[in-house]
Amino acid sequence: MIVLGIESSCDDTGVALVNDKKEILGEALQSQEEQKQYGGVVPEIAARAHLEHIDELVSLCFKRAKLSLSDVDAIAASSGPGLIGGVVVGVMTAKSLALALNKPFVALNHLEGHALCARLSNEVEFPYLLLLVSGGHCQILVVKNVGEYERLGTTIDDAAGEAFDKVAKMLGLGYPGGPMIEKLASMGNEKRFSLPRPLLGSNDCNLSFSGLKTAVRKLIESYSPDGDIKNADLPKEDVNDICACFQATATDCLVRKLERAIKYFKQKYPNGHHLVVSGGVAANGYLREKLKNLGEKYNLEFAAPPIKFCTDNGVMVAWAGLERYRLGLTNSLDFKPRPRWPLDENAPKAAGAGGVKA
Ligand code: KG4
Ligand code: ZN
Predict the structure, then answer these.
(1) Looking at the chain, which runs of residues are DSSP E strands?
(2) Of 18, 28, 157, 172, which one has the fewest beta carbons inside 10 Å?
(3) What is the pLDDT of residues 59-88, one digit of tens each?
(4) Is the CA virtual torsion 246, 288, 5, 314 positive or negative?
């Protein structure tokens, strides 16, 4: 069984072929350089760039796999949530191929791509506890099965990756910010500045990064003669220390809320044995290390996709598409791409997660 996956929901155009023996047969990925000069993703530019690259990436992927279009059993595309112009490009490509080849189409929720990705590289059984941290999303979920999620907590403002990107922008470190912050943080002193940990005292699994981001802004402003962040004169060492303190604080917020979620998870799902992290921020080595320790503390096995499959890619779409296809979960060609699409939308409301006593 071979599934083609197409990703185009943000600023990465990804195509991959995966089979049910968990082999990645072919892969092609283009991360948009176009966005770097803007310090973020411009939706219209992203959509045009997907359109420009997608056909050649599909061809390249098949060439690398030494397969032809007719070898494919199903075609999956990230069909939301995301920047709709880009999503439409991937979905139309997938639908056209499905129609021409007379093969099933899977309209994949992009978040499900992140959520199931760790099952490709690791032996992770359902149910498992998942921290999904990306540029657009930050959620703590129980993955009960393919298509079955219980959301325990979410950010009430910025996503974790968004906070990394915004802090990096304030420090003039370019986009995307996460990798650069991680690099500089490794040379900094994470104890130098004390930063706020919003929502830590709340009796739920929700997160907030907006106050932390504002505190970093104020700190940077204090280096400016006129209080304007653009005129801040920061010695290199202080930039490293700010990165280290921000990364440590953001990670601590995630770890502390996950700790609360773990207690709920262990109680409600005693047959669950894994703690998984996925999404772009899961590429962060500091966070991975802290989560590994957290798993050990609570006797949960820690798992995460390989670093290169944490940020958006076609492999996670092909794999999650395969997981759906083999359960018969395909979609008709009139599926409408969705800018918003909560992963747990059909699930009953999580009863009790908010009231877990730590
Ligand atoms: O999953 P992803 O590629 O796109 C979304 O679905 O949003 O995640 C991108 C996010 C960006 O915010 C980026 O700064 C962050 O992941 N990121 C990282 C690292 N690598 C990527 N954040 C922290 N540390 C990293 N090493
Ligand atoms: Zn993503």
Answers:
(1) 2-7, 12-19, 24-31, 74-78, 105-108, 128-133, 138-145, 148-154, 274-278, 301-303
(2) 172
(3) 999 999 999 999 999 999 999 999 999 999
(4) positive
The whole-angstrom separation of Cα 326 and Cα 322 is 6
Residue 136 φ/ψ, nearest 5 degrees: -115, -10
Residues with CB under 6 A from ligand 1: 10, 134-136, 161, 164-165, 176-179, 182, 279-281, 283-284, 311-312
Which atom of ligand 1 lies nearest, measured to the CA of 161?
12
Q: Are 181 and 246 in contact (CB under 8 A)?
A: yes
Per-residue model confidence as pLDDT tens digits over 116-158: 999 999 999 999 999 999 999 999 999 999 999 999 999 999 9
Q: Would you state the structure tokens that stand for residue 57, as one six-digit string?
A: 């990436």
Tell me the CA–centroid distance for residue 75 and ligand 1, in Å: 26
Q: Which of 278, 336, 332 is nearest to 307 (CA)?
A: 278
CA 83 to chain centre: 14
- Check if the beta carbon of residue 91 is closer than 8 Å to that of residue 108: no
CB neighbours of 262 closer than 8 A, spacing ≥ 6?
A: 129, 275, 294, 298, 300
